[in-house]
Structure prediction request, 143 residues.
Amino acid sequence: MPNFPLPPAIAKYVNEMDYRQLFDALAVRLDGARAENTASTINFIIDEGNGVSASRYIRLKNAVLAHREGQAASADLVVKLSRPVLEQLVAGALSPGDAIDKNLLDTRGDVAALRKLFALLDPYSYWFPIVTPATKRMPGDGL
Prediction:
């Protein structure tokens, strides 16, 4: 399929997600086979504006990406970022490297943990054929 830019509706869709859904969206993209021998914990502090922030942490272990509200006592990395930057990262509109280069993240700890996490995520496939012609008819197909 062609490599088109993200559809504009994706930004609106991601904007409506709560934090559980945003981090679930990352977890379902994890390539378990490639993540098999990787373990890390990352604390996120998300600035929602007006002095309000939310805290979540993710733990990658045994090829599973789990997330919880709050902060892990021991983390490889602490990332402070705004909600819009988190949304761009989740949507794939911004890479961790670009976010770091543009000073959109305030980090403390092993930044390689964040880069590695996103490298283990499968890309979204926004553009795929809805209907494809059958290449071979099977007995019992009915048509």
Remarks:
- The CA atoms of residues 10 and 114 lie 23 Å apart.
